[in-house]
Amino acid sequence: xxDVWLLRLAILVAGIVLFGAIIYFGQPRKGGQGRRRAxxxxxxxxxxxxxxxxxxxxxxxxxxxxxxxxxxxxxxxxSDLGRRPDDAFDKIVTIYIAAHAGEKLRGPxxxxxxEKAGLTYGHMNVFHRLVEGHPERGPVFSVANIxxxxxxxxxxxxxxxxxxxxxxxxLPAPVSALDAWEMMQPTAERMADLLGGVVLDESRNAxxxxxxxxxxxxxxxxxxxREAPPLKPARW
Length: 236
What we know:
- Keywords: Cell cycle, Cell division, Cell inner membrane, Cell membrane, Membrane, Transmembrane, Transmembrane helix.
- By secondary structure, this protein is an alpha+beta fold.
- The chain has one domain: Cell Division Protein Zipa, Chain: A, CATH 3.30.1400.10.
- It has helices at about 5-10, 15-25, 105-115, 175-195, 210-225; strands at about 90-100, 105, 120, 125-130, 140-145, 160, 165-170, 200.
- A hairpin with an 8-residue loop joins β4 and β5 (about 140-145).
- α3 packs across α4 (about 175-195).
């Protein structure tokens, strides 16, 4: 049984892809983004968000720290808009919009900003950018709350406050990886402007031109790798 098969089996749970990015950013990153870790014995490790916004731009040290478990689907997640046709994935790229120190992003403002930015509320009670005219292809990228359980419950949206929201691009996407990024970055910048927040990279630093170029280079390489023809078996 191959490691790839085991990896895909472990993630064949409804909705896990949408919250995978949020779970991953609870651990410090070294190098690239978004790969699932395995614990001793091969069991799935479930890291939690704990203190990524407790220092710096996100929230003050005395603010309650966000924590998110990997669990069941968000309640009332009845819409299929934004559901991936295939739960298998091999890379996630994540950026954030964070409130300035001592401030919060408010639920009603997030909803208005998402609508203005062309996002659709749907599967898992989060927002998605869909392929125009082809919503069945799944999300180009999605936007979730970093606070548990990660969703935006419209029944209590007036009371919702959060230190940050997460944008995550799960690959493969319904468009090329680079095209998906070129849609996600300006959307995040537009929403940050509307919300009065700041765009952060996967390490919770301000998204710089250098990091943007690095992400583009990574995604170009990803696209080239997927387009490359399979190697022919050697003849002996």
